[in-house]
Amino acid sequence: MTKTRSNFRVAVLIDTSSGWGRDIIRGIHEFSKKQGGWQLFVEPRGIEESIELPRNWRGDGVIARVNRPELARQLKSRRIPVVNVSAIQLPGANFPRVASDTAEVARFAARYFLGRGFRNFAYVGLQGHAYASHHRDAFLEAVRSNGRTFDEFDFVTSGFSQTPDWNFRIEKLASWLKGLPKPVAVLTWSGGREIIYACIQAKLAVPEQVALLSGANDELLCEVSPIPISAVQQSCQEIGGQAAALLRHLMQGEKPPAGPRWISPLSVITRQSTDSLAITDSHLIAALNYARNNSDQLIQVGDLCEVSGLSRRLFERRFVECLGQTPANYIRRLHIERAKKLLAETDLPVPEVASRSGFGSPEYFAFVLVRDVGLSPLRFRKAIRGW
Question: FRET partner for 252 with CA separation of 20 to 30 A, picked from 9, 92, 198, 241?
Fold first, then answer.
């Protein structure tokens, strides 16, 4: 029989020490309020703490970051609906899943760097972690498909940790960074402060010689660095909301979906660590500066050609060779990133956001945004602001 009550008792086994975890919990809470208010059992926990259900807890469902075999076994033994919000793939942990699309996060990062003219790329990952390897492989594929160079460095971690061992010698990382061709664009799984410290030790300029992008945007940790770190903004509130919606269906007796639900990232938050262009062609620099300074206007490829002083055919050829994309695609990305920024930082109505971002109509803007991140303008604003 299908359950129809709304006051479910739900355990949330997700850390509260990271921006990722807190935003997912916010998304769960927002969804539960619309259902009349679930009883959410949440406790303050660190990302590396072992979180589990109390032995005598009785409830209707669980939303968890299933990152350890012990937790997976415990949840299976309870025989209640579980939704997993972790991208970590554990053998036998076949719970319904709503999680960040780590491969798309990596491709998102590659497009961001390619759009800034980088030709040399590197990845700093976590040794022995399959989910980090999946992230790296997607980044590598996107980079090499554009004919760019690639190198990698793996941190040693302890157990299931997502951070480098604190005994790690910064000198080793500094030596590796020093040997890379410059300028180089570096993506890391998350964090990145160790990379900034290594650059300082190696006397490498950030972002002019080493541009660093984190795969996860924890605002506090990205700012607590000698050089603030740019990061990919994942759609954590959307993950929380969709995980809660899926759990509701399961608690009401419905069948689980056939496969996981992967959620695309929202945008790149640009801070000092990537705030530069890695090109030397003066014609292209003039065109790119014009495009960036006029991203609130409807820009045509012909406008960039005129500013560059090159014929259209030569301009487009150089553009693709240097930036790995067509001028038309670059203009579209520029407009959509400006629109995302306005949605995140202002209360402008959606038609005004579209107008100030170079889109011909709010309908076309909404179509492009949904295609880009899978969210309407209003849902994107809500997700990125943490409402």
Answer: 92
CATH code for the domain in which residue 217 is found: 3.40.50.2300
Amino acid letter, 226: P
The answer to whether residues 133 and 59 belong to one domain is no
Residue 310 lies in a domain: yes
Number of structural domains in the chain: 3
Q: Is residue 4 assigned to a domain?
A: no
Quick: pLDDT tens for 167-210.
677 899 999 999 999 999 999 988 899 999 999 999 999 998 99
Domain that includes residue 43, residue range: 9-100+235-263
User: What global pTM score does this model have?
Assistant: 0.80
Residue 10 belongs to what H/E stretch? strand 9-13
Give 157's pLDDT tier (boundaries 50, 70, 90). Answer: low
Tokens in use for 56? Answer: 């005598």
- As a whole number of angstroms, the distance between CA 210 and CA 207 comes to 5
Closest CA to 286 of 311, 306, 312, 313: 306
